[in-house]
Amino acid sequence: MAVNGAVTWLRRAEEIDGYDLSASDSEEVHVLAVDDSLVDRKVIERLLKITSCKVTAVDSGRRALQFLGLDEEKEANGFDGLKVDLIITDYCMPGMTGYELLKKVKESSAFREIPVVIMSSENVIARIDRCLEEGAEDFIVKPVKLSDVKRIIDYMTTDFREGEERRRGINKRKLRD
Amino acid sequence: MEVGQMQRRLVDYTKTLFMEGFLDAQFLQLQQLQDESNPDFVVEVVSLFFDDSEKLLNDLSMALDQPNVDFKKVDAHVHQLKGSSSSIGAQRVKNACIAFRNFCEEQNIDATLRCLQQVKHEYYLVKNKLETLLRLEQQIVAAGGSIPTIEMGF
């Protein structure tokens, strides 16, 4: 536990030097949250907003796919302005389960790079393994706590910033000198 | 009653709810998510929980009242109620749901009817207590005070 905390702190220190900390629109992590429970959607939305994410919360796997533009039956509704950086989904949902949503995302060439995190109230090793094998980034046991979300977003933000820098070919630390 | 007294009364009341098992640490998580930008967060989530639960309890009553009970459906409703009660920290409701699901698995109609009564009982108890707690908070805020944070060290 202490080790994880130290690593996170180190990343933060590197980010603070020479960085503009005010998140611009393009730098905010946009999370697509999927949960059929209204109570849980409200909580996860707040947890994500408190961790400075943009949130789109939907109530089913089907709607999640529609939002991404992956649903075959409905045409993409032109929401392509808002890129999704992370999908966080409940496992047990009527209709399409979180596992099935995970598979559909990972099977899609357009969206397979988006990290998917699964939430479940059942702490079943077989279920966790199955999700991780299918490409889930992480698995959160419900009820979801602030520390769970912070851990995931911290990890995402570091990965995300480093990825963005590589893509833009800029090393921000050099600019500071 | 002055603000300091009200705050102490709230802290004592909240601690009792924890000691008696009505609420667990998840409720404290929710309180942590409330701030000046979202001053009504807890009230809003708890209200959603009340609406959701009452609908589920109705659905459960109906489902168990059928000549041929569909236990899969019953279990699905209980699973939902277990989930939402767990998310707000309503521990006794959650535990009653866990017991309920076990009897659903056994397809035991008498036991499940008893479980429904038990869940309803726990739900109305926690509803009552949460309403009291939230009312105490409201009074403090109305008197210009701030809601004290509860430390789990007790």
Automatic annotation (TrEMBL), chain A:
Response regulatory domain boundaries: 30-157
Record bears the keyword Nucleus: yes
Modified sites of kind 4-aspartylphosphate: D90
Keyword ATP-binding on entry: no
The protein's name in its UniProt record: Response regulatory domain-containing protein
Natural source organism: Hibiscus sabdariffa (roselle)
PANTHER family associated with the record: TWO-COMPONENT RESPONSE REGULATOR, TWO-COMPONENT RESPONSE REGULATOR ARR3-RELATED
Assigned keywords, A-Z: Nucleus, Phosphoprotein, Transcription, Transcription regulation, Two-component regulatory system
Family matches, as Pfam families: Response_reg
SUPFAM superfamilies to which the protein is assigned, alphabetical: CheY-like (SSF52172)
Coiled-coil residue spans: none
UniProtKB/TrEMBL annotation, chain B:
PROSITE patterns, sorted: HPT (PS50894)
Chain positions found as Phosphohistidine: H79
Main localisation: cytoplasm
Alphabetical UniProt keywords: Cytokinin signaling pathway, Phosphoprotein, Two-component regulatory system
InterPro entries, A to Z: AHP1-5/YPD1 (IPR045871), HPT_dom_sf (IPR036641), Sig_transdc_His_kin_Hpt_dom (IPR008207)
Compartment list: Cytoplasm, Cytosol; Nucleus
Membrane-spanning ranges: none
Domain HPt positions: 38-137
Organism superkingdom: Eukaryota
Domain notes: Histidine-containing phosphotransfer domain (HPt) contains an active histidine that mediates the phosphotransfer.
Role played: Functions as a two-component phosphorelay mediators between cytokinin sensor histidine kinases and response regulators (B-type ARRs). Plays an important role in propagating cytokinin signal transduction.
Name of the molecule in the record: Histidine-containing phosphotransfer protein
Higher taxonomy: Eukaryota, Viridiplantae, Streptophyta, Embryophyta, Tracheophyta
